[in-house]
Design a protein that fits this description.
Shape: globular
Number of helices: 5
Strand order of the largest sheet: 3-4-5-6-7-8-9
Protein name: NRDE family protein
CATH superfamily: Penicillin V Acylase, Chain A
Helix content: 10-25%
Order of helices and strands: EEEEEEHHEEEEHHHEEE
Pfam families: TANGO2 (PF05742)
Organism: Usitatibacter palustris
Number of strands: 13
CATH topology: Penicillin V Acylase, Chain A
Distance between the termini: 27 Å
Radius of gyration: 17 Å
Length: 253
Amino acid sequence: MCLIALAWRAHPTYPLVVAANRDEWRERPTQAAHWWPEHPQLLAGRDLQAGGTWMGYTRTGRFAAITNFRDPADRRSTALSRGTLVTEFLLGTDSPEAFAGHLASRAGHYNGFNLIVGDGASLFYFGSRQAEVLAIAPGIHGLSNHRLDEPWPKVRHARDAMREALAEDNPVNRLFAMLGETKAAPDAELPDTGVGLDWERRLAPSLITGADYGTRASTVLTVTPGGAARFEERTRDASGIATGTAAFEVRPG
């Protein structure tokens, strides 16, 4: 994922709400969200190149999502796939705190990343660039390609949209609207991550369009106190239009 807005214990009906966009090179083969045949408890999309995923949920209430840390000067073609960390947590039994704590010793095997892991009882963040393990506090948070709650314009906007969505009876429509917005921030507010101004402008909106790279999928997840969840993914084409929708009702068990 390259944009995640989440609300943790900030709503009486949904202790966890997540809205996320996955941005990726369009040539990278991908399978839309589905129940994995070999792991029937796992609901997630699939990276068909490396086998991992970017965001998923399980029938036991485990959640994980990952973003890249944007730094073109520190990218290795020999690094392990970051998406495998998501599936490793989702299919494992370690608590979120234990899993995040164990990552510091092997984070160097991967290019930079930010990982969020939860099990319904707790939610933790690990940032590989600082070897940073944080218990995510109740409230509204945002993550893009830097540290958790880094105040990039798109992160601030996503958090504001989450706050507005939680004031509505059904937050899903407002969150998908935010994930589909293409308005960029003024140049003076853009971060400088080493990719050049043209790319900073292109990467600034919630929704990124283009034939070579852009938003491949938008996902909204809402979870009830008992672990029941609704997971909706909308796949997108190069122009940003949603070309397919997959919606799942997840019952704990």
